[in-house]
Fold:
Amino acid sequence: MAERVTKDTFEEKVLKSSLPVLIDFYSDSCVPCKKMSPVIGAIADEQAEKLNVYKVNTNFDSEKYSVMSVPTIVLFKDGEEIARKSGAEKKAVLEEWITQSLDK
Structure:
């Protein structure tokens, strides 16, 4: 299950992480976000040793990252954003995107 991060914990958990980090920017009222939640949770569980996965509620904590639509998935490596994807995706598509993004 993906843990929620806030603006107060973002730097420590995301920007200073020794592992790559996947952030799911979501809203509680977003239907596609709710559909993505189990996908994000499965990725968090399955890739726990090589990828940290967190959720950010856009109603409270997204202003710094210019998230214009939800869900938006952002991948960070070494404290820098390396890839961004908006919209709901199937698990296999999201996993392939993660692999390709990290291999660049």
Remarks:
- The CA atoms of residues 46 and 60 lie 28 Å apart.
- The helical segments are 10-15, 31-46, 58-61, 91-103.
